[in-house]
Amino acid sequence: MRFCMEHWDRLKKAIEDRGLNHLIAKDGEAAMDSTVRQLKGQDDASDLDPLMSATMGIYSAFVRDIGLAAMGVDENGNELCPLCGVKRQRDDLDENWIQGAATDSLDQARYLKLMPEAS
């Protein structure tokens, strides 16, 4: 599975619209280092990457809803974009998932005291 560029850009914008862009890993190496710490149980609040958290939430929901078929390719041999897949089911569902995942990331950042509570 792989996000298409349109959906990746829209998800990133939704994260940025919530003021979370300062928490996004600066590059792939930093994101991987954080993931390794999380897998080892050695992470702390500073390891939250809201973009990766939202991405993993979308992947998880897609696999849960679609099953192992989600790991396949489309009719052109391209890896499936989970948001393109849900958009085929209902035209606005991709945007619903983007906004929901971004809000979940904001909630997690607030819980970890990385962002102020809503006023």
General description of the model:
The protein is an all-alpha fold and 119 residues long. The mean pLDDT is 91. It has helices spanning 5-17, 28-40, 50-66, 82-89, 93-111. It has one domain (5-111). The chain is 59% helix and 0% strand. The chain is built from 5 helices and no strands. Helix 3 (50-66) packs across helix 5 (93-111) and helix 4 (82-89) crosses helix 5. The longest helix is centred in the last third of the chain and has 19 residues, at 93-111.
Strand content: under 5%
Total count of strands = 0
Give the termini distance in whole angstroms: 37 Å
Number of domains: 1
| Overall pLDDT confidence | 91
Q: How does the major sheet shape up?
A: none
In sequence order, what are the helices and strands, one letter per element?
Answer: HHHHH
Bin the helical content.
Answer: 55-70%
Report the total helices.
Answer: 5
**Low-confidence segments:** none
Shape: globular
Rg, nearest Å: 15 Å
- The helix/strand class is mainly alpha
